[in-house]
Design brief:
Layout lengths: L5 H13 L21 E5 L2 E4 L4 E4 L14 H12 L9 H13 L4 E5 L2 H16 L3 E5 L12 E2 L9 E2 L6 H4 L2 E4 L4 H11 L3 E7 L14 H12 L2 E6 L16 H4 L5 E4 L10 E5 L1 H4 L18 H13 L2 H24 L5 E5 L2 E5 L8 H4 L4 H13 L2 E2 L16 H19 L1
Parallel strand pairs: 3-15, 5-8, 5-9, 9-10, 10-11
Antiparallel strand pairs: 1-2, 2-3, 4-12, 6-7, 11-12, 13-14
The structure holds pyridoxal-5'-phosphate.
Length: 433
């Protein structure tokens, strides 16, 4: 049992004195589950060690970024070699070219531009879509998160195809006045929005398979429908693969639908895995659309550390190591944990559904299949909190919210998987209590 938290508690108190909520990204504060977030001192493979010396199997993997686990020796060596040559020059470098070539090889994009976070990637993709089409309206789906871009921090308006309201104080109504928020997986609502506003819609942006309301797969053909509808109306289809890219499968979520169905997004966004644990993200797409970006075209976009040699080297090393065997291992681990979690919860009589998109998965504490945010919101978050803490006490670090995907890596060996399986029955019993 991991019951020593003295140092994490002391650090949390110091952190709260100097940082809002004591954290630099809200979900880390454990507000959704209560208790003290563990301050992590180191990571190795599938394991985290906190400042009190407790060890945890990590099922967060830096929110999906660490496909190969913590401190992978070859990625570390590549980063160390890059750092020894300097960290940033503000000039073009070879690693940027190599990483761009690798992404173009592995995805349907023709050209790619690097940025430093997924938020910048989606923000820039939307600006480019607006600049390319000369239109202003953006369609997004409730429950899909695309980073903290003002116009995308939007809550659905009050009626069918009405414009959105700010999702947080600090976002002016004018920033969301051109955003339409629709229910996910609902073709009729998409058709209605295009019927009413089609000639004003610049783009539809969607998570390729949502992972930010828990994992919700697109219904068969949904992404294809979005792509076709956009094309029919002269809008662009932006597939946000910041989370799913190089993770849901070798070819991301697109490898699970677009590749076999024969469609391509006009623009895509990437982050997480492609940065190998350092801040790197990207947006890319059709050559004629990307040609509108400065300095080739008129749509402005830039970044001091964009494509910096250390982050691009980490990303390149990661993608080069991300072979079919890596994805086979991750699939197997995901499947084993998914199945065991479902079994433990069934045996404890806890209502739940386990959902997945390729190697990404999550457990909803509700008894009906979740196809959209309304259904995701119906889950029993108190049951999740009890489950979460029982897992944490037994040395398994889950994402501290019921609305997050669980992530595994190729470093999750049999010992790490067994530690998760051992913890599940007691955690399921805690959720039932
Ligand atoms: N898009 C998706 C699908 C994400 O999951 C995230 C982050 O979780 C983002 C965009 C934003 O990325 P970042 O946190 O790097 O700004």
């Amino acid at each position: 049992m991991t019951d020593r938290t003295t140092r994490s508690e002391a650090l949390f108190e110091r952190a709260r004195a100097v940082t809002p909520g004591g954290v630099n990204s809200p979900v880390r504060a454990f507000n959704a589950v209560g208790g003290t977030p563990r301050f992590i001192a180191s990571g190795q493979g599938a394991w985290l060690t906190d400042v009190d010396g407790n060890r945890y199997v990590d099922l967060v993997c830096s929110w999906g970024a660490l496909l190969l686990g913590h401190a992978h020796p070859e990625v570390q060596a590549a980063i160390a070699a890059a750092v020894s040559r300097g960290t940033s020059y503000g000039t073009p470098t070879e690693p940027e070219v190599e990483l761009a070539e690798e992404i173009v090889r592995r995805t349907p994009v023709d050209k790619v531009r690097f940025v430093s976070s997924g938020t910048e990637a989606t923000m820039s993709a939307i600006r480019l879509a607006r600049g390319f089409t000369g239109r202003d309206v953006v369609v997004k789906f409730a429950g899909c998160y695309h980073g903290h871009v003002d116009s995308l921090l939007a809550a659905a308006g009050s009626g069918l195809a009405t414009f959105a309201l700010p999702g947080t104080p600090g976002v002016p109504a004018s920033s969301t006045a051109l955003t339409l928020v629709l229910p996910y997986n609902d073709r009729e609502e998409v058709a209605a929005a295009f019927a009413e506003h089609g000639d004003r819609i610049a783009c539809v942006i969607t998570e390729a398979a949502p992972g930010n309301m828990g994992v919700v797969s697109p219904l068969p053909g949904f992404n294809a429908y979005l792509a076709e509808t956009c094309t029919a109306h002269g809008a662009l289809f932006i597939s946000d693969e910041v989370m799913t890219g190089f993770r849901a499968s070798r070819l991301g979520q697109w490898g699970l639908d677009g590749a076999s169905e024969g469609w391509k997004p006009d623009l895509m966004t990437f982050g997480k895995v492609m940065g190998g644990g350092l801040p790197a993200a990207a947006f890319g797409g059709r050559a004629d659309v990307m040609a509108h970006l400065a300095p080739e075209g008129p749509v402005y976009q830039a970044g001091t550390l964009s494509g910096n040699p250390v982050a691009t080297t980490a990303g390149l090393a990661t993608l080069k190591l991300a072979t079919d065997e890596v994805y086979d291992r991750i699939s197997l681990v995901a499947e084993t944990i998914r199945t065991a979690a479902g079994k433990a919860l069934t045996e404890a009589g806890v209502p739940h559904v386990v959902q997945s998109a390729g190697t990404m998965f999550s457990v909803f504490f509700t008894d009906e299949q979740v196809l959209d945010f309304a259904a995701a919101s119906s889950q029993d978050t108190a049951a999740f909190a009890a489950f979460f803490h029982a897992m944490l006490d037994r040395g398994v670090h889950l994402p501290p919210s019921a609305y997050e995907a669980w992530f595994v890596s190729s470093a999750h060996d049999d010992r790490a998987v067994q530690a998760v399986l051992d913890a599940l029955p007691a955690a399921a019993a805690a959720a039932a209590a």
